[in-house]
Amino acid sequence: MTTTALPTYEDAIARFEPVIGLETHVELGTQTKMFCGCRTEFGAEPNTQVCPVCLALPGALPVANRAGIEATIRIGLALNCDIATWCRMARKNYFYPDMPKNFQTSQYDEPLCAEGYVDVEYEGKPYRIGIERVHLEEDTGKSLHVGGATGRIQGATESLVDYNRAGIPLVEIVTKPVPGLGALAPEIAKAYVTELRDIIRSLGVSDVRMEQGSLRCDVNTSLNKPGEEWGTRTETKNVNSLRSVERAVRSEIIRQASLLDEGTRIIQETRHFHEDRGDTSPGRSKETATDYRYFPEPDLVPIAPDPAWVAELKAALPERPSSKRARLREDWGISEIDMQSVANAGAVELIEETIAAGASPAGARKWWMGELARRANETGIDLADIGATPLQVAELQKLVDAGKLNDKLARAVLEGVVAGEGDPAAVMAARGLEVVNDEGALTAAVDEAIAANPDIAAKIREGKVAAAGALVGAVMKTTRGQADAKTVRDLILARLS
Amino acid sequence: MAAISREEVAHLARLSRLAVTEQELDQFAGQLDVILQSVARVGEVAADDIPPTSHSVPLTNVYRDDVPQPSLTQDEALSGAPDAFDGRFRVPRILDEEA
Question: Which of A39, A47, A99 to mutate to test the interface with B (most CBs of B within 10 A)?
Fold first, then answer.
């Protein structure tokens, strides 16, 4: 370890040019695994979604899942790739207990999709990221290392393995090396993964959740002096959030610059990103491609997608998320930043449908991005599964617009909707939440009471909230008891705060 | 000339996580050599008009529908395992590696 202080990022980037590359793994959301009919549900009891094929019991033979092939082709098309007319799966041989077969079924020199690109926008400027290949493989089992520090292999005495995940279709998307980004390399890396996530989510082929591991990212980084050849790259793994993509590139640039300053050579290695510290440490030394002894998988016949089918899939691709966002942003009249948070919350379609069901853009956005997004964050449940539908949110907003609910009552109604008590109108009726008087008449009565009792009003203004009771009484009198006392009290306090 | 060296056998054994004794290295090098030489003879008789063949059947696009089939139970899955704990396969730790 070096004891000299690390250079600052600005300092490092002033002297070196970074080249980055990203390898992203996407777990497909198919019902069954890639080569057998086992379910793929997240969080099932260990080793309950396994069979002779994914446990590699002798004699078991794989058959490819059509949905996995189709999803991979659609991802390739959405990333502007050429689709192979004929290709094969390959065995990647390695001996590690996360794969019971002692190989991973993958693709080697014949990927299903190749030579594409993704256009990324950052601060209003476009950047084109080349896609080298998109190939299909299978996920591995999950190991739990025990006997030492929990979950870490250092000091562990044994590993406990769950093969539920083994065999779930995994799509690997590899970019071409991206030079020329300079100081923006970390931000563009993050923008690329964000765009990729949005594109794949729009295809509906994966839930692309980094925190659950259905979207995983490895970041390659190298540095060179201006005008010189590209440097040796490192591969950073364990990058589990969009923010970490940016941090991992940044920290690796600083670390490599520090080594190069000392005249130390960069070793080609796998490094581990630490979310807590924001830096990387060396991981396992990588086996070389020849050590994997790739060869065509004899148990699976070649994949030869019919060009007519591919053309059909291409024609049916959804609108690109970036152009859709630009279009909706204009329709809704909101800022770029607001639109980005809507996209990040997974609320674009929900708000779109709520507006289609009759709500105003502002109203629709307010509920999804306010109350419901907060609830989704707190519970870790997807916004789409939160318990309220676009139709219900639109109905709620209509009740507010019609003056039947004020903001506070509407929140209570929404709570009932989410709790499964029914549609907004039903919840309003069942819980007796309807505004008794229209806001205008109540406000007039409140203003009248305040004007008639200036001394009490002054006390409330000074913070003596208890004095409000007298004014509530006055309002109840003028409205002949038909007002909701609590609403009146709130109105008075709001008026005098 | 031997098609495979002792060192290559040792390398393969390491990749396969197999503990192979010095004596076995010689033994396996000899056996693998016979296999490789036999395979090499196929290359000798294959003319230019015979393309490399990875699959013996002329089939493509054999797929199944994405429909769940019953899996094994946890007990069944673990029944052949040398060791298990808490519903999982128990294996010795792997040295010097982190997947």
Answer: A47
Q: In this predicted complex, what is the ipTM?
A: 0.88
**Distance separating alpha carbons of residues A67 and A49, to the nearest angstrom:** 18
Chain B CB within 8 Å of residue A66 CB: yes
The answer to whether the predicted template modeling score (pTM) of the entire model surpasses 0.90 is no
Chain A residues inside the 8 Å CB shell of B67: 31-32, 37
CA distance A351 to A349: 5
Is B35 part of any domain?
Answer: yes
- Give CA–CA dist A94/A290, Å, rounded: 11
Helix (H, G, I), strand (E, B) or coil at A159: strand
Which distant-in-sequence residues (6+ apart) come within 8 Å of A358 by Cβ?
A394, A398
- C-alpha A451 chain-centroid distance: 54
Rounded CA separation A293/A156 (Å): 29
What is the total count of domains within chain B? 1
Q: Is B43 on the interface with A (CB under 8 A)?
A: no
Are the beta carbons of A288 and A94 closer than 8 angstroms?
no
Domain A439-495 top-level CATH class: mainly alpha
pLDDT digits (tens, 9 = 90+) for A446-472: 888 888 888 888 888 888 888 888 888
